């Protein structure tokens, strides 16, 4: 009976984690769209909705600690709970970076905009969203080989980071009045790059859950 209850609790934990992941995915999608379309109202919605992600984090942490205290899991069962705790923290940080991008959208009101840079940021944002979505799929499947494959997509994000940084720098040289805008562009691509890092972390936690090995991809 205790085992049945434990497995039911774990199933609820996984479902809540996936729901949180989808909310974070929505935040990433909306915050990038708000930034490249200069939609400050949508940016404000992203900031307001961050409270829901934080609430998910609190609920998942509480449920995880409850399982540890009441079920006293050991070995692989404990790894399951620890994986969720670590991955939840990564998701919450992704949400924080989505909020930071939304704040940049609001802050940039009236600044000179560089269309070519924003087009590339839009592409980077789509790649980041797809990366996070693939990471959630890895989590659901618990597939170690797929975790390595998906984690390698972080290199694509890093390439976008470097190329956009170079493009923005070149555009600022041509038009020094856009230097303040450039600062915000650099911050936004840094936030997107960090979201990619956290997605890769979740792939690493899936490997830990399946093998018991802590690795760095």
From TrEMBL:
Main location group: cytoplasm
Domain named PhoU: which ranges? 20-104, 121-206
Origin, by domain of life? Bacteria
| Compartment(s) where it occurs, according to its Swiss-Prot or TrEMBL record | Cytoplasm
Gene Ontology biological process terms from the UniProt entry: intracellular phosphate ion homeostasis; negative regulation of phosphate metabolic process; phosphate ion transport
Q: Name one GO cellular component term.
A: cytoplasm
Q: Which InterPro entries match?
A: PhoU, PhoU-like_sf, PhoU_dom
In UniProt terms, what function does this protein have?
Plays a role in the regulation of phosphate uptake.
For this entry, the protein name equals: Phosphate-specific transport system accessory protein PhoU
């Amino acid at each position: 009976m205790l085992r049945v209850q434990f497995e039911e609790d774990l199933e609820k934990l996984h479902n809540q984690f996936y729901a949180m992941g989808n909310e974070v995915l929505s935040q990433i999608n909306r915050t990038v769209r708000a930034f490249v379309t200069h939609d400050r109202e949508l940016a404000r919605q992203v900031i307001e909705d961050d409270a829901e992600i934080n609430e998910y984090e609190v609920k998942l942490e509480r449920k995880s600690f409850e399982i540890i205290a009441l079920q006293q899991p050991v070995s692989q069962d404990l790894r399951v709970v620890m994986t969720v705790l670590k991955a939840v923290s990564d998701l919450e940080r992704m949400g924080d970076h989505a909020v930071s991008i939304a704040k940049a959208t609001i802050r940039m009101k009236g600044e000179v905009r560089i269309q070519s840079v924003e087009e590339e940021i839009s592409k980077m944002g789509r790649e980041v969203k797809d990366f996070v979505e693939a990471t959630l799929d890895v989590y659901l499947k618990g597939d170690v080989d797929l975790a390595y494959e998906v984690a390698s997509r972080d290199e694509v994000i890093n390439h976008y980071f470097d190329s956009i940084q170079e493009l923005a720098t070149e555009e600022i040289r041509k038009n020094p009045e856009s230097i303040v805008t450039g600062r915000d562009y650099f911050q936004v691509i840094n936030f997107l790059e960090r979201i990619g890092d956290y997605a890769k972390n979740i792939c690493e936690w899936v490997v830990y859950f399946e093998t018991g090995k802590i690795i760095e991809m």
